[in-house]
Amino acid sequence: MNKAIRYASVDALRGITVAAMLLVNNPGSWSHVYAPLLHSEWHGCTPTDLVFPFFLVIVGVSIALGVVPRVEQGADRRALTRTVLIRAARILGLGLLLHFLAWWWLDLPHYRPWGVLQRIGLCFAFAGMAAIWLKPKAQTLCLGVLVVGYAALLAAGGSIEPWLNVDSRVDTRLFGALLYQYDPATGHGHDPEGLMSTLGALASTLLGLRAGALLRQRPWRLLPVAVLLLLVGGIWAQWLPLNKNLWTPSYVLWTGGWAFAGLWMAHILIDCRQWPALGRRFGVNAITAYAGSSAMVLAMMATGSWGWLWEHLFNRWLSPLAGAQFASLVMALSFVALWWLPMAWMDRRKIYLKI
Questions:
Q1: Distance from first CA to last CA of the chain, Å, rounded?
Q2: Which residues, other chains included, contact 117 with Cβ-Cβ below 8 Å and sequence gap of 6+?
Q3: pLDDT digits over 134-187, tens only?
Q4: For residue 1, what pLDDT band results from cuts at 50, 70 and 90?
Q5: How far apart, in Å, are the Cα atoms of 122 and each of 21, 41, 195, 235, 266?
Q6: How far is Cα of residue 45 from the mean position of the Cα atoms in its chain?
Q7: How far is 283 from 65, CA to CA, in rounded Å?
Q8: How far apart are CA 93 and CA 355, in angstroms?
Q9: Given phi > 0 = left and psi -120 to 50 = alpha, else beta, which region is 271?
Q10: How far apart are CA 291 and CA 281, in angstroms?
Q11: Beta carbons within 10 angstroms of residue 292's beta carbon
Q12: CB contact set of 179 (below 8 Å; sequence gap of 6+)
């Protein structure tokens, strides 16, 4: 089990997740979106709320498939550590750059340091270090301590309501007006990708690390573990609600259960039954697709071309036929299809950009 193996199922699942990110992040109009394509306002879990934790679980799976075999083969752990940390820093830096472009091009009132790529970079670094320096039992123990400890932290903070929870209070104390949301009148702030809720996201990535170990050694166990995670997460949610903004421990387990089940199904259908690896072309250049599409949308919003396309092409022609929500969805699907073209071109020419 020391040889690194490329699983088409993992590339496909990663690609489907990235395509879903592009879909839910870029509707034609935010005023016209079907409910399942929106995040929960606070407590709850919509299909859209599954997308980001799916990606982080796959980050952990990829580390288990790419980094762990090198450790088992006796590779220099210090060299591996440098490689992981450098890549994590690049991902984080790319996120900071995108937010700089958003601040500059869209004339935002302040620069926001936290974001999706920043969270991915931090989680990649943390899970990578765990894969390199900790044995499997220690990784599982670390996961358990993180989940239980974070739950205790949320409980000790009192309320888990908007603005009043411990995550928002600590993030506001540290970053103030630089957060995604900030009310100068009350001094309350909140960021869905802030520092404190990253504790839950780290747990999701460690879950992925364990999922990758199962995929390599006992893939049949993915489904029963998925059922167990869903049961525990669902029961726990009766006391500690599912909440993406806080990335609550119940949300970690619930979304992790669905991700384990998705990985099991992808493995059975693609690796075992040789079904087409749909989504693979997004999956092998995932960060490129996400960052490139984000930069494109920012440029289109800055120039007004996104709004022009929505009003004069999609809204004008499709809304009278099937409604504005349908028109908004078609524009989002068109955007995903547009980005599939360069990803397919790169894949055919075996161009894989590693951040």
A1: 27
A2: 91, 92, 94, 95, 98, 287, 290, 291
A3: 999 999 999 999 999 999 999 999 999 999 999 999 999 999 999 999 999 999
A4: very low
A5: 19, 25, 10, 29, 27
A6: 14
A7: 15
A8: 10
A9: alpha
A10: 15
A11: 15
A12: 112, 114, 171, 172, 189, 190, 191, 194
**7, 215 contact by CB (below 8 A):** yes
Distances in whole angstroms, Cα of residue 236 to Cα of each of 44, 239, 282: 13, 6, 34
Strands 188-190 and 181-183: antiparallel
Q: Is residue 329 within 8 Å of 279, Cβ to Cβ?
A: no
Tell me the backbone φ, ψ of residue 124, rounded to 5 degrees. Answer: -60, -45
Q: Which amino acid type is present at position 102? A: A
The pLDDT of 48-57, averaged and rounded, is 98
Looking at every residue in the chain, the average pLDDT score rounds to: 96
User: Average of pLDDT values for 87-108?
Assistant: 96
Query: Which sign, positive or negative, has the C-alpha torsion 125, 126, 128, 134?
Result: positive
Which tokens belong to 60?
């952990």
Q: Which two tokens stand for residue 164?
A: 């009043």
Could you give phi then psi for residue 4, rounded to 5 degrees? -70, 135
Q: Whole-angstrom Cα distance, residue 242 to residue 332?
A: 27
